[in-house]
Amino acid sequence: DTEVTQTPKHLVMGMTNKKSLKCEQHMGHRAMYWYKQKAKKPPELMFVYSYEKLSINESVPSRFSPECPNSSLLNLHLHALQPEDSALYLCASSQDSGGVRGETQYFGPGTRLLVL
Amino acid sequence: AQSVTQLDSHVSVSEGTPVLLRCNYSSSYSPSLFWYVQHPNKGLQLLLKYTSAATLVKGINGFEAEFKKSETSFHLTKPSAHMSDAAEYFCVVSDRAGLNSGYALNFGKGTSLLVTP
Predict the structure, then answer these.
(1) CB of B4 within 8 A of CB of B108?
(2) How far is A71 from chain B (nearest CA, A)?
(3) Buried b / exposed e across A3-33, counting CB within 10 Å, b at 16+?
(4) pLDDT digit of tens for each residue in chain B (117 aa)?
(5) 8 Å CB contact of B108 and A105
(6) Among candidates A50, A56, A107 on the partner chain, residue whose Cβ is nearest the Cβ of B43
(7) CB nearest B102 (choices: A99, A104, A112)
(8) How much is the CA Rg of chain B, to the nearest whole Å?
């Protein structure tokens, strides 16, 4: 089973709201990732967790706050977002530490976020 | 840093004809290369990957890609296009995310494949 699940599928929020995106995998993977994808663009890496510790933060604004409660779960907490943050948010996982060259990442279907 | 360039932003083919999506890479050492596909409003699915084993890599749904070091290319091909192949295709290279970081994926800008009846 190479499935990564994400909830919710769609989310509409105001600029003062607080919401969370959830990602789950049961493949025993130890690295998990958040990407942001704008329309007609490739995904952009936001965060990498390796063995439940944040290993990469690609200079993401603090209004995005990741959390990895355990090896199967990854959350992205959202607060005071801007309309330009509207995008598809993709979660991915990979088997090892995220530090292995050529490691395959498995992607979830994404959460489509609209900030009003 | 390693990078990939997808040479066509849009490719249009007729159903049943061959597909060629072009990708060139830039790398100072032997790269790890991937092709991912993204159907509308969906996540990304791995089609195939090259990690310095056989230069001709076979993937899912009849796709294959050939690693050519002399040409620094990793083009994606399929002998006969289906309507269901219409999607966005990304060529991707694995590269270090930072000086003391592990590897992350560097995506090309994508090629949109249109399949006409």
Answers:
(1) yes
(2) 18
(3) ebebeeeebebeeeeebebbbbbeeebbbbb
(4) 788 999 999 999 999 999 999 999 998 777 889 999 999 888 899 999 998 778 899 999 999 999 999 999 999 999 999 999 999 999 999 876 655 556 778 899 999 999 999
(5) no
(6) A107
(7) A99
(8) 14
